[in-house]
Amino acid sequence: MKAIASSLLPALSGRLRFLDGLRAIAAQLIVWHHLAFYGPLSDVARRLTPFLVDVLHHHARMAVQVFLVIGGFVTAQHLDGLRRLDLRCFLREVGHRYRRTGGPYLMTLALAVAANALASQWMDHRSISAAPTIGQLIAHAFYLHDILGYQALSAGIWYLAVDFQLFILVLAMAGVLRALAARLTMSAEAATALTRLVFAGLAAASLLWFNRDNAYDHWAVYFFGSYFLGMLLRWVLGGALALWMLWAYFAMVVAAISIDWRPRLLVAALTAVIILLAARRRLLANWPNNALVAYLGRISFSLFLVHFPVCLVINAWFSRLPLTPWQSWAAMFLAYGASLVAAMVFHRFVEAPFQRMGSKRIS
After folding, report:
1. SS3 153
2. What letters, b where the CB count within 10 A reaches 16 and e where it falls short, cover 177-205?
3. 20 to 30 A Cα–Cα from 328, which one of 165, 278, 311, 343?
4. DSSP 8-state assignment for residue 126
5. What does each C-alpha distance from 291 to 13, 20, 21, 342 come to in angstroms?
6. C-alpha separations of 313 from 319, 351, 361 in Å
7. Is residue 346 part of a domain?
8. Residues 35, 336: contact at Cβ < 8 Å?
9. What is the dihedral of CA 204, 207, 210, 212, to 10 degrees?
10. How high is the mean pLDDT of the chain?
11. Predicted pLDDT at 84
């Protein structure tokens, strides 16, 4: 396996089409989950296809696990590229991350506030948020809305907060452990091994404790078990760790599921297995060789951000009409298509400029 992993190192340094494909699929599922979950169009459409709407309502949300695994994979790759990680570098890395992802997120908040105000003119529904307070906006800007108990202004932004927490947690732990290793005059190899061991311990605690208690579901530790799966996968594919370590972690995931059934962990494990199989077949960098899939992968973050305000307004507009189930499905497809168009525009004029602004690396 190490020979295979070594041959993948050049590919792993760039953008991977296979991961873009997984992002594209996961993003579409999240859009349809929210279309099915929030209604009111789905309430009418369900009369025609109750099973399909229920599946989208209850299970499509687990596509978030795909983003968690890929997020861990990318963060591990980023971490390995940092030759130093003192406090100054840590703060700059966090700042770059916020500009790259937080900038588009703040723009989305403005869209969400406007969409809620517009939608409230046409319908009274649980999916509409009240006009935000100053405190609520400030909490959202710092990804603290769930922790401080504020109502979210848009669907799915809980994940953005958790993803930012996970990134900070990994960098902070790595920085502290590197500093400790330097004080103990440990070799670079020993320091890296210590860091990965501590990460593994936190991942085990997440699987067996934190992730079983919904009181922690606004915190990074609740999701670290899935996130670490992506990190571990990156290290194995990069040749830094042996394959048996990944299988040992899979066994831990299975044990955690057997103790407390959580299908979301199964989705995370299956995502990692699919990526592993793709790597062994040397498909990560070049498959699928499809321009549309690649583009959907690139705009997946923008789609994740803007789809709910678009879907909310379209739901509100059609709620004034007595639609049949077929017409409701047509309106849902219209909302989906409009979300894609909005994501294309948002990616071109908002996300891409912020990505360029926050792309500087510290090494």
Report:
1. coil
2. bbeebeeeebeeeebbebbbeebbebbbe
3. 343
4. T
5. 21, 11, 10, 19
6. 10, 22, 39
7. yes
8. yes
9. -150
10. 93
11. 86
Does the bond joining 325 to the residue before it have cis omega, within 30 degrees of 0? Answer: no
CA distances from 217 to 94, 155, 222, 224 (A): 22, 15, 5, 11
Q: How many domains does the chain have?
A: 1
Exposure string over 164-175, b if 16+ CB within 10 A, otherwise e: bbbbbbbbeebb
Residue 64 identity (one-letter amino acid): V
pTM of this structure: 0.94
First CA to last CA distance, the chain: 29
How far is it, in rounded angstroms, from Cα 93 to Cα 359? 10
Q: How sure is the predictor about 181, in pLDDT bands with cuts at 50, 70 and 90?
A: very high
The number of angstroms, rounded, from the C-alpha of 341 to the middle of its chain's C-alpha atoms is: 21
- Give the up-direction half-sphere exposure of residue 91: CA atoms within 13 A in the CB hemisphere: 2
Is residue 302 included in any domain, yes or no?
Answer: yes
Residue recorded with tokens 């499905």: 329
Do 303 and 67 form a contact (C-beta atoms < 8 A)?
Answer: no
Judge whether 363 lies within some domain. no
**Can you give the length of the chain in residues?**
363
- Which structural domain, as residue segments, surrounds residue 8? 2-357
Q: Token pair of 181, please?
A: 């290793």
The H or E element that residue 328 is part of is helix 325-346
In sign, the C-alpha dihedral spanning 284, 288, 291, 293 is negative
SS3 content of the chain, % helix, strand, coil (to 5): 75, 0, 25
- Residue 216 belongs to some domain of the structure: yes
Dihedral (CA of 61, 330, 344, 347) sign: negative
- Please, what's the b/e burial string for 258-294 (b: 16 or more CB within 10 A of its CB; e: otherwise)? eeeebebbebbbebbeebbebbeeebbbeeeeeeebb
Q: DSSP class of residue 99?
A: I
Structure tokens at 196: 């990965």
With cut-offs at 50, 70 and 90, classify the pLDDT of residue 15: confident
